[in-house]
Amino acid sequence: MGLHRHHFRQLYVDAHLLNGREYCYYVRVEGSYGIEGIPSPLINLSQEACSTPIDNVPPCPPVLEVTNICNQKIPCQEQEKLENLLLWDNPMNICEETDDVVSYRIYFKPFEDGDFALVGEISQSGDTTYFHQPDRGLAGCYAVTALDTFLNESALSNVICTDNCPTYILPNAFTPNGDDANELFIPYPYCFIESIELSVFNRWGEQVFKTSDPNINWDGNNMKGKALPAGTYYYTCKVFEQRVTGTVPAPELLRGYIDLIR
After folding, report:
1. Quick one: CATH architecture of 63-162?
2. Do residues 88 and 106 make contact, with C-beta atoms less than 8 angstroms apart?
3. Looking at residue 7, what is its pLDDT?
4. Are the CB atoms for 62 and 128 separated by under 8 Å?
5. Domains in the chain: boundaries
6. Residue scoring higher pLDDT (76 or 239)
7. Which among 97, 135, 76, 133 has a CA at the least distance from the CA of 16?
8. Are 142 and 160 in contact (CB under 8 A)?
9. What does pLDDT average to over the chain?
10. How far apart are CA 223 and CA 125, in angstroms?
11. How far is CA 83 from CA 135, 156, 163, 201, 226, in A?
12. Which among 40, 100, 110, 116 would be 20 to 30 A from 55, CA to CA?
């Protein structure tokens, strides 16, 4: 077969190259005129072309999970346990198009309708866990991104919002009698409460005490500082919880009786 000029282009793709390294190529062509006395095959070499690959394709996003004590039904009074554990999959293990993840970025927003802010970075692709303690208990939303060697950043992972698990319970008696035991009307240990609206009434329906402090600390005096007589008092208490949607009232109004024992 003779050597002829053909008007079509051949394609060759060289994959799995190193970013930033120069690669040079030429094409070797073998042919023949098919004429006796002319050497065969004839070798033609193209000009040399060099180029440096630069990766501008971001990795696939990670897949995120978040757990905390609310998921595990663990009491929330111990402050050191008030943290969210983020777990995610390395995109290199779940996405064939990704093979060069080197780090991660963790984003957080305290409310569902807020904007994400960067709260952490991990510089090892094999480290796929992160602990975070929000300012308002456990409430907030998270997303993670993956970065490659050229700092191409993936899209956000799935967004996961965690919520607080508020608790607020009131006792039914206290004894402000000066013996330094059970002197104040206070709630049981509580969590994730922003404020309250507590009103206490005597048996004639007169308001004798009110507060917005979740700790209450009522000493048995009325609002003028005068000691109230022993007896049974009625209360209503509206509780405002710290939630991922903001500060919201609890679904139920607390109400009941308090025995003030002298």
Report:
1. Sandwich (2.60)
2. no
3. 53
4. yes
5. 1-54, 63-162, 173-260
6. 239
7. 97
8. yes
9. 90
10. 61
11. 10, 22, 12, 39, 44
12. 116
